[in-house]
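Subgroup meeting minutes
Present: P.N., E.W., G.H.
Scribe: E.W.

1. P.N. recapped why we're keeping a running log of single-chain structure predictions: easier to compare across weeks, and new members can see raw inputs and outputs side by side.
2. G.H. added today's entry (139 aa).
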Amino acid sequence: MRTEAGENFNVLEMFEVEASDEALFGNLDWIKNNEKDVDIFVTALLSVWQDLHEDPTIIRRETNPDGPIGQLPPEILAELDGFYTDAVAGGLYDLNGGGRKAANADMEWYSAAGQLKGSASDLNIEDFWYLAPLDKASK
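Output recorded in log:
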């Protein structure tokens, strides 16, 4: 789309934000009762983001051509490397999965929006997010 019809799109200016765009949600009891499986999943997901930082072409190279991404139109597939290169350079994929930095930004966002009572700096992210699996995967 950027190549063929870039003039048809506008870019909305955005303030600097580190909030979580992709967060995993689950029942805390289930997560704790399935800790080994959750650890495997979170470690694998984090490794994808880290691999993206090393080589943004990994998505195209490792994508199953019969899977969802492989079914995209050829003109979109041709832009995958550029998309992921730009996304990594723009900070879309945090090398460490976002973690506390993204959670703190979420707290600021929701506090400013009036969705949380009190100042974000007075709230404890551990009261809202269970970060143990990501902390473990990050070691």
